[in-house]
Design brief:
It is built from 9 helices and 11 strands. With 327 residues, it is α/β, with parallel strands linked by helices. It folds into 2 domains: 140 residues, no CATH class; 139 residues, Glycogen Phosphorylase B (Rossmann fold), CATH 3.40.50.2000.
Length: 327
């Protein structure tokens, strides 16, 4: 329980838009931006679930304040009665926030005072249309083109798929929610680089909820979610990707196994389960830390801030030294 402690989601007033939705899980193009898909969407889900919290455009003087890393100014420090909860995604942590929320379980293992909560699946998602049956024709990438492996943006890739009787499309942002005519998702950031401990498994969640197989790169977030061979194809080369597509195209039964498994796994990543995680984190961890912070003497609070400032200086020094050492 929060004991009626004030809990706020902070979205700077300059980022408030006239068409911001009042309900969660609806298509809104701005949910493609971190400050909205994390801060606004989380607030809307919790509010719809009856959790006592408020969305504010200015930082209050007292209470638990949750905000995206891009919304908390770098020099912002918690006051004697404010607990800062930074949603850091694929950013560096806020230097003064007492708690950090991360979107990859591996990131939580590295960062002190951090807690893993998965990012929401695509709001307003339209799944693959059942009438497509065993058709296997349309292959799509849902995401920013910059984050797609160069090999998958080359004309030769599209040509290879065309020779297999497949259509390749990098889905534009205004259709990231629409999987109705998609038969498989391909999403690889880099065939050489692996891990990506700050990135989420959202593309996998979306594929499960869309009811389509996913062909993905070797990323820790995906690997953390893997329970069976039908969760997704993991590939480390263009040849691997082509081979996976051929297997799916030539084996309708295999495709159906992936679709059946997707139905099962999508239940685990339903928004209702993510709401439960947020409620538990705020009602237990955040409330405990808030009470602990407020109970500290002014001297101990000042010591915490001094340690944070010292870490900023140390990290700045490391960043200046490392390029010199390895040049």
């Amino acid at each position: 329980m929060t004991d009626l402690l004030p809990i706020y989601f902070y979205l700077p007033q300059k980022d408030w838009l006239d068409d911001m939705p009042e309900q969660p899980d609806v298509y809104w193009e701005q949910f493609g931006k971190g400050i909205y898909c994390w801060t606004l969407q989380t607030y809307l889900y919790l509010k719809a679930d009856g959790f006592l919290c408020n969305l504010v455009g200015t930082i209050p003087d007292e209470g638990i304040v949750i905000a995206h890393r891009d919304s908390f100014p770098y020099e912002l420090r918690p006051t004697p009665k404010v607990l800062m909860v930074c949603i850091k995604p694929d950013r560096n942590p806020h230097p003064y926030a007492q708690l950090q929320v991360v979107q990859n379980p591996q990131d939580a293992k590295k960062l002190k005072n951090s807690y893993y909560i998965p990012l929401w699946r695509q709001p307003g998602l339209i799944p693959r249309h059942p009438e497509r049956g065993d058709r296997f024709e349309n292959i799509g990438y849902f995401g920013i083109s910059f984050n797609l492996a160069p090999e998958l943006k080359a004309a030769s890739w599209s040509k290879q798929l065309e020779e297999l009787g497949l259509n390749w499309e990098i889905i534009p942002k205004n259709r990231w929610h629409d999987y109705s005519n998609i038969d498989t998702v391909v999403a690889v950031r880099n065939f050489q680089k692996q891990d990506y401990t700050k990135k989420p498994a959202t593309k996998l969640y979306n594929a499960w909820h869309a009811g389509v197989p996913a062909i993905l790169g070797k990323e820790s977030a995906f690997q953390s979610e893997r329970k069976s061979e039908f969760d997704y194809f993991e590939v480390s080369s263009l040849d691997d990707t082509i081979a996976a597509l051929k297997r799916l195209k030539d084996n309708p039964k295999l495709c159906q196994n992936f679709r059946d498994n997707a139905k099962h796994r999508s239940r685990e990543t339903n928004p209702e389960n993510t709401v439960k995680q947020w409620r538990s984190f705020l009602s237990n961890t955040a409330v405990f830390e808030y009470k602990r912070w407020c109970s500290l003497s002014s001297w101990r609070q000042s010591l915490y801030l001094q340690k944070c400032f010292l870490n900023i200086k140390i990290n700045g020094l490391k960043n200046r030294i490392l390029p010199w050492r390895y040049s």
